[in-house]
Here is the input.
Amino acid sequence: MASTAGPISVAVLDDRYEPLPCVMNTLRLLEEEGVFLLSGYVGTPTLTRALPFIKQYAQEHDEDLAVVGVFTGAQPQREPPYVEYVFNIRASYRQEMMALVDQFWRAGAREFGVFYQIDAYGRSGTDGVARGLARRGATIAAEATYARGARFEDDMSLAVKTLREGRVDVVLCTGVYQGCAAFIRSAKDLGWNVPISNLSFVGSEALLGLLTEHGRKAGRDYTRAIINSQVVPSYDDLTLPGVREYRAPHGQEQPCDPALTARSPLHAAELQLRQSGRFHQCQGHRRGPAPRQGPISQGAGSGRVSESAARLRPGHRRPAELSGRTGTRAWTASTSLTWKTTSGCPSPTGRPR
Here is the structure.
C-alpha cells in the first residue's frame, strides 16, 4: 500500500470477534508495533472494550491517535469520552433503526417487536428502536433475545412465540446472520409471516444464503417480507463514482464481490491513504519525530472520501460525533436470490398502508 508519503506498513491481527483478544491486539499494536492509526474494528463488544485503553494510551503518551473506519455502528465511539479518538464513516445503528421505524410506521405498523443479541451490539440497535418510537409517543411492544454464538440450526421457537403473543406488526432484529436466520426460519415454520427486518451488520448475503439453501431443501420460501437496512449504496448503481471505483478492478462485465458490506473497507482505506500523506518522513504506521499538520481527526475531516461514502468539511465536528455524512437505505430479498433496493417497507397484515 502506498500514498504520497511513501509506502505504508499495515499490521493485521485477528481478534476472532472476542473482547479479550481485541484488547490484547490493540495494546500490541500500540506498544509493540508503534502504530499511529487503528482501523478494521468489527464488533461492538470488541471495540467498546478497546476504547478505554486507546484513550488512556493517547493521554499518557500525548499521542494523536485515531481509529478510522470501524465496521460497527454502535454509540460509544460517537459520544464522549471516546468520540475525539474515532472518525466514523458509516451510519450508526441508532440511525439505521430509527430510519426503519420511520419506514414501517409510514407503512402502517404500530406495534413493534425486537429480537436482539444479548450484548452491547444488540442493546445499541434496540435503543434505536426505542428512540424512534418515543418520537411518536410509542414504546416497544414485545422483545426476545438470543445469546452470542447462536447457530442457524438452533430452535428459536420460544422467541417467536414471545413476540407473536405480543401481537406485533413487525420485528426489528439486531444480531448476526446465524441467529437472525434461525429466528426467521423458526417464524416461517410456525406459520408466522410478519415482516422481519435486520441491521446492516447482520451479514445480508450470508443470511440470504442460509435461508435460500434451507428453502430449497424444505420446498418453501423463507425470504418473503425480509427487509434489511444498509449504509452503502447499491453495488449495481453505476451512476455513483464510488460504485464504479469499487467495481473497476474486476471489470464491468466480470463478477465482483457483491457483498453490501464489502465497500465499507474501501472507503476507510481511501481515507487512510489520503490521511497518511500528512505524516512527513513517517513510514507506514510507525510513529516518530515527523512534523504534523494538526490533529489526525481534523485532517481526516478535510477532502472527500468517494462521492458515495462521505462528504467531509475541514474541522467539521458535530456536537456528539465526528464523522462523514451518513445515510441508511432499505433492501429486500428478491426472487432472483439477491438483494434489491426498496422505496418502502411491506404493510403489516391487517393494517392500511
